[in-house]
Amino acid sequence: MSSSTANISRLARTEIPYLKNYKAYIGGKWKSAASNTTFPVFNPANGEKLADVSNSGQADVKEAVLEAAQAFQSWKLRTAKERSRYLKKWNELLMERMEDITKIMTMEQGKPIVEAKTEVAYAASFIEWFAEEARRVYGDLIPAPTANSKVVVMKQPVGVAALWTPWNFPLAMLTRKAAPALAAGCTVICKPAEDTPLTALALAQVAEEAGIPAGVFNIVPCSRDNVDEVTDVVMESNLVTKFSFTGSTIVGKLLLRKCADTVKKVSVELGGNAAFIVFNSADVDAAVKGVLSAKFRNSGQTCISPNRILIQEGIYDQFSAKLVEGMKELVVGNGLDTKSSQGPLINEKAVLKVERHIKDSVNQGARVICGGNRLEELGGTFFEPTVLTDVTNEMPVSREETFGPVAPLLRFKNETEAIAMANATESGLAGYFYSQDFKQIWRVAEALDVGMVGVNSGFISSEVSPFGGVKQSGIGSEASKYGIDEYIDLKSVNFGGM
């Protein structure tokens, strides 16, 4: 791996492209917080303050709830074809604004400009997909148990949906929730992460330009100091009938408890601890490429990143050597430098976690064979892509989700042991394995306790494939034809005297 030598201060942008203001978007209007307070947004690559964003509080979110509830009464009555047209226009304009929104994302989140551009296209794919799915929400006619009667199942929008999204994919995680909600006939209130509200505000600006009616799509950015009071407003409101969250398992559990009082329909996508298994029969070169793409995407800051790389003992040394060689192609630097393939971590706290995982694991017998250090010359949030060998399942780097550019390599003897090691976690989001034994492929795909499996591939997420986990990694699925079901209620209508 190498470091980008570009001058970071020269790459800094003091002007945010495209965005006209940094306020909440409520009821079709851009509004300052009722408290008239703001919170700062920083570039993680260099610490530069990018903007001061309106800090929404209770009053602002209560207003957003009322606006969304009022808009729902008319939005749900629009035909599926009408809603589809709005979404298609939204998608079209988002793609037209790709260059500007790409820069916004890189500036506030840090990911390389090429990755950010890919995310914009990825985010748009969900809007395009659900624009089409809006017209395919079909009910059922069920054969009745008695003569002269009919049973019909109607599918209706659940209502106002509150969408809480993370910082690591600030655009795609929002469209993956908002697009099916709007397609189904729901209205939404979105709270982006404090670190990355600008991308969400840009999406709201695109929605406004697309003519999406006032109150249908609302954004309420807030600081960490206000997040509890903002969240409690939607949790306590009977007008908000759906809650969707992507984030940590600890926070997700707390929010699930809060949803219980008003019995909201919920979908949560929580933490992962994905295993990446490489069997003796695997194409080792392909497996190395799979690890490099899946593990080091977004500098390892994705919920489906391989957190434990399990290598069968017959190819362990060969694989580790080729992985280290492949990592020489990774270039660490400011995301605005087009040469960079690895950006900064999101903040100092994230770096400290990576350092702790490496130190504690080394103290228990692991070895660093590549990387392992901050790149102080670039800035305090840049970290070398790292490979650890001689790792065991008991080490912190295996037990906890690292969320950083660290690849821990564990040995296993046989298929049974590999599956046991992979499943030895409370998480069950994603899993990967490489094998050329077709019988083994089927056995392992069935045996892994996860919601998503990559077989001979490091890419498992798209608009057509269900995204979600099992065990403590979440409830419900996003994307695919199943994603719209999270925003729909079933109503059975029984007709007598026919």
TrEMBL record:
UniProt record similarity statement: Belongs to the aldehyde dehydrogenase family.
Keywords, sorted A to Z: Mitochondrion, NAD, Oxidoreductase
Quaternary state and interactors: Homotetramer.
UniProt GO molecular function: succinate-semialdehyde dehydrogenase (NAD+) activity
Full protein name: Succinate-semialdehyde dehydrogenase
EC number(s) recorded for this UniProt protein: 1.2.1.24
BP GO terms, sorted: gamma-aminobutyric acid catabolic process
Coiled coil spans: none
UniProt xrefs under Gene3D superfamilies: Aldehyde Dehydrogenase, Chain A, domain 1, Aldehyde Dehydrogenase, Chain A, domain 2
Species annotation: Paramuricea clavata
An example Gene Ontology CC term for this record: mitochondrion
SUPFAM superfamilies: ALDH-like
Reaction catalysis annotation: succinate semialdehyde + NAD(+) + H2O = succinate + NADH + 2 H(+)
Pathway: Amino-acid degradation; 4-aminobutanoate degradation
Family matches, as InterPro entries: Ald_DH/histidinol_DH, Ald_DH_C, Ald_DH_CS_GLU, Ald_DH_N, Aldehyde_DH_dom, Aldehyde_DH_Superfamily, Succ_semiAld_DH
Localization terms from the record: Mitochondrion
Signal peptide: none
Function as written in the Swiss-Prot or TrEMBL entry: Catalyzes one step in the degradation of the inhibitory neurotransmitter gamma-aminobutyric acid (GABA).
